[in-house]
Specification:
The chain has about 325 residues and is α+β, with helices and mostly antiparallel strands. It is built from 9 helices and 8 strands. It has one domain: Glutaredoxin. Helix 2 runs parallel beside helix 9, helix 3 packs antiparallel against helix 4 and helix 3 crosses helix 8.
């Protein structure tokens, strides 16, 4: 056999082997993106990638809504799945579907929180929050469920927003699930005096009192076919966080608020005060991301979060963020 033929056959074998390896890698990626029948949809969100799951992990806890929960027309559910912040006569209505373990949720929250807080307190804006569990679909986690339940328990004590802020300030890496241990959440909540001294709150968190409510939010999230977390509506119009810096996110968000306020008549409702979280450094188990009340002047990290801003990181080793 000539040298040319031998080289040709060797090259052919190498091509076949390379194609086989490529097929195996593609199959592994396909399996990674489908866990337990949960299909993953990847969407661009705030410079990262959101991963939304078509079916959230279920739990059988009975449905029990937190205090003052409301039926939200945007959620298209007869159940009281929302938590209101702000006055009822505020002209602009905002709806937020979020997961406290979602990195892109934290990025957006960090960028826009000071602005939406000003609008709420000025009587211009009312927000309805829907904490859900999306990232839990990754590695059979329970941290999103426990975090959202803790927020609902805080709502029972009129402390939803302080804990809301602290959960984002102490958000763990989404590839880990330290909030599966409810004591980690209680440690975060201890920074809020009204919660640290509340036996009812502690029992609510450890007992998973509002787990069924969180699951109802997750089920409704999937029923609505939302692309991922965070999903935000202003006066029924879904926002598109495709910007690549915190400043750009804020500029876009404030523009949408101002346009809605003008369209709604430009007259504010009743001013209100939002309870604030204590200012302190994140706990040792948290990520290094800034708190939700931090200044929005800094751009998000150049490396996108590792999983779901929009939902859970379904892939075992995702390379980009969710939301």
């Amino acid at each position: 056999m000539s040298q040319a033929n031998r080289v040709g056959k060797q090259n052919a074998r190498e091509r076949v082997l390379a194609e086989k390896i490529a097929r195996q890698k593609a199959e592994r990626r396909r399996k990674q993106m489908t866990i337990g029948g949960v299909v993953v949809l990847v969407v661009a969100v705030a410079g990262g990638v959101g991963i939304a799951v078509s079916a959230a992990k279920h739990n059988s806890t009975p449905y029990l809504a937190p205090a003052a929960a409301v039926v939200d027309p945007q959620a298209k559910s007869s159940k009281a799945t929302g938590i209101h912040i702000g006055s009822d006569d505020a002209p602009v209505k905002m709806n937020v579907f979020e997961d406290f373990r979602c990195p892109v949720c934290q990025e957006v929250e960090t960028a826009v929180e000071p602005t939406y807080r000003q609008y709420v307190e000025a009587g211009k804006l009312q927000i309805t929050y829907h904490p859900a569990r999306v990232i839990d679909s990754h590695n059979n986690g329970t941290g999103s469920l426990n975090g959202a339940n803790a927020a609902a328990c805080a709502q029972d004590q009129s402390q939803f927003m302080p804990l809301h802020d602290l959960l984002y300030a102490n958000q763990p890496n989404e590839q880990t699930d330290p909030w599966a241990d409810k004591s980690a959440l209680l440690k975060i909540a201890d920074e809020i005096p009204a919660l640290k001294n509340s036996a009812d709150f502690q029992a609510c968190v450890t007992g998973g009192t509002h787990n069924g409510w969180v699951q109802a939010n997750a089920d409704n999230f999937n029923k609505l076919g939302l692309p991922g977390t965070p999903t935000v509506f202003i006066d029924g119009q879904q926002l598109s966080f495709t910007q690549t810096s915190a400043d750009a996110v804020l500029q876009y968000f404030q523009g949408q608020l101002d346009a809605a306020f003008k369209k709604d008549g430009g007259k504010a409702g009743t001013p209100t005060t939002i309870p604030t979280a204590p200012t302190s450094a994140p706990s040792s188990g948290s990520s290094s991301a800034p708190s939700s009340g931090a200044s929005s002047s800094g751009a998000p990290a150049s490396t996108p979060p590792s999983s779901s801003g929009s939902s859970s990181s379904s892939a075992p080793t995702p390379t980009s963020s969710k939301s």
